[in-house]
From TrEMBL:
Protein name according to UniProt: MFS transporter
Localization per Swiss-Prot or TrEMBL: Cell membrane
Major facilitator superfamily (MFS) profile domain ranges (all copies): 11-392
Domain of life: Bacteria
Keyword Cell membrane: yes
Length: 399
């Protein structure tokens, strides 16, 4: 398989275009979920809780997503996920009560777990090893572009349709993504399994027992990077408000950080493919650690902008690293189930990061909380540096 001619352009329609649409739909509604909850009678605290339901939906659906993908295949799983997300958007469009709206938000997280697992599995099987990191980083970059475009599309729609316009944009994007996924060809060539093995692998529990060293080693690094990434989106606006910047200025800083993050995914993937995963994983975490350490030392627009751009650069060079490492270490037999466990670790980190930050802010200060997250990022750099090989060599048993 790795010796056949291959171009990432062949993945454009198969995986990247539905991922762009999916990201656009998600980006369109993410900024206004809290506002929608407030409009349905929620308090500020309850509205914040509703926002977290996206993560909760993803967390509880990773194992079912693995079972679904194993049973029906990647293409059908992506189609089902996009359709399910479309239905979730409908609950944002109709004048539903808060409880029904919360169900719709949870459905978005559930759909994301299935869609992301299926597309990662598809790329892991379809792309030769020497292109894998570029394929995965491009996938992460395309999703970022979609999420970046989404709020602008939603703003235009809301000028005519009110707040429901954002959900119309989301529903249309998800529906078109579902149609595109219907045309994705099923994989005809897959990595061969070892003699005597079943491609579906054993149970989730047996795979976890077989792969426990990887899940507790590099997997802990995945928890760290996910915690830092999710917290990064919170600390920038909080610190900007803490030093007296207005909302427009904070948004500008956040936008510049996101732009740097979005634009450098492909070079990072190429470095991973040519030099090895560790050459990106460790700098990604180290740079974010430095940026987070410096953030509480900033006191104005210029210094915070510089630090925010450094934080965006650190996160950007790690585009696709979680998916790439998951694909690298996933066994051929039971790959979707292993990747379901991998995403479970990632989602656990994503949920734990903001909770840890909130706890530290409550008992100490925002600056202390940011420095703790910086320490977690440094820990992640150490874990990746210790467990990931210095070269592009693969462990025995990987495809």
């Amino acid at each position: 398989m790795s010796e056949q001619p291959f171009s990432l352009r062949t993945m454009a329609v198969k995986v990247y275009s539905p991922s762009l649409l999916y990201g656009l739909g998600l980006g369109a509604v993410t900024p206004i979920i809290a506002l929608s909850a407030l409009g349905r009678g929620a308090s500020v605290a309850t509205a914040a809780l509703v926002v977290t339901l996206v993560g909760v939906g993803s967390l509880i659906s990773n194992i079912p997503a693995a079972v679904l993908t194993t049973r029906f295949g990647e293409r059908i799983a992506m189609v089902a996920a996009a359709g399910w997300a479309s239905l979730g958007m409908v609950l944002g469009i109709i004048p539903s009560n808060l409880g029904l709206f919360a169900v719709g938000v949870t459905m978005l997280g559930m759909a994301g777990a299935v869609f992301n697992l299926a597309r990662q599995t598809y790329l892991a099987e379809a792309v030769p090893l020497q292109f894998r990191a570029r394929a995965m980083s491009s996938l992460g970059g395309v999703m970022r572009i979609g999420v970046f475009i989404g709020p602008f599309a939603a703003t235009l729609a809301m000028n005519w349709l009110g707040i429901a316009g954002a959900y119309w944009v989301g529903m249309v994007a998800m529906a078109v993504s579902m149609v595109v996924c219907l045309w994705i060809p099923d994989l005809t060539a897959r990595a061969p399994v070892e003699a005597g093995q079943n491609r579906a692998g054993g149970s989730m529990w047996s795979i976890a027992k077989d792969q426990w060293r990887i899940l507790l080693g590099i997997g802990l690094g995945i928890v760290c990077i996910s915690a830092v990434r999710s917290t990064r989106q919170v600390v920038l606006p909080l610190w900007g408000e803490n030093i007296g910047l207005d909302a427009a200025t904070i948004s500008l800083i956040y936008g510049f950080s996101g732009a740097i993050d979005m634009l450098i995914f492909y070079p990072a993937g190429k470095v991973m493919d040519t030099r090895g995963r560790v050459w990106v994983a460790v700098p990604c975490m180290a740079v974010m650690s430095v940026a987070l350490f410096l953030l509480p030392l900033t006191h104005g627009f210029a210094t915070m902008l510089a630090v925010a751009m450094l934080l965006g650069f650190g996160n950007g060079i790690g585009s696709g690293i979680v998916m790439t490492l998951g694909a690298d270490y996933s066994p051929v037999a039971g790959r979707p189930k292993f990747l379901g466990l991998w995403r479970l670790l990632s989602d656990t980190g994503s949920m734990a990061g903001p909770v840890l930050l909130a706890t530290l802010v409550a008992v100490a200060t925002l600056g202390a909380g940011v420095w703790m997250i910086s320490g977690i990022s440094l820990l992640g750099a150490g874990l990746f540096g210790y467990f990931i090989p210095r070269t592009n060599r693969r462990r025995m048993g990987a495809p």
